[in-house]
Amino acid sequence: MIEHARQCLEAESSADPQTLRNASGAELLPLLYARAGAAIACGAEGVPMLVREIRHVEAAVVVNLETYGGHETVLCEGHTLLGRFAALAEHARTGRTVEGILRLPRSTPQAPCG
After folding, report:
1. What is the pLDDT of residue 114?
2. CA–CA distance, 112 with 44 (Å, rounded to integer)
3. Which three-class secondary structure string do you get for the chain?
4. Structure pTM?
5. What's the rounded Cα separation, in Å, for the pair 65 and 75?
6. 101 - beta bridge partners?
């Protein structure tokens, strides 16, 4: 998704390459890959992101939505993802550094149904 957004922006813009990488979210790819690997290894529910990083991924989603010509599945998934990002940004947690490693507090456990 991010790579597609970068390619679309490069094709349509005369901005410098660094600006296009930043706008498409491509700068985040190495960070997100590393975090995803760590999250999977630790059994985490998702990949931690900084609130300021979410806006870059949101921009990539919007570019993708605009370039896929209104395909229903893409639109539905894209808007669902944008809604998820909005919810995550609203429920951001403050991290702390422990021995040079950023740690987030655990999520509040949900009450069991029933």
Report:
1. 47
2. 19
3. CHHHHHHHHHHHCCCCHHHHHHHHCHHHHHHHHHHHHHHHHHCCCCCCCCHHHHHHHHHHHHHHHHHCCCCHHHHHHHHHHHHHHHHHHHCCCCCEEECCEEECCCCCCCCCCC
4. 0.57
5. 6
6. 98
102's tokens: 């950023």
Per-residue pLDDT of the chain (114 residues; tens, 9 = 90+): 677 777 777 787 777 877 777 767 777 778 888 888 888 888 887 787 787 888 877 877 777 777 776 667 777 887 888 888 888 788 777 777 888 877 767 665 544 544
Specify whether the CB–CB gap between 57 and 28 falls below 8 A.
yes
Contact 49, 10 (CB under 8 A): no
Residue with token string 């040079």: 100
CA distances from 33 to 27, 37, 70, 73, 92 (A): 11, 6, 29, 25, 20
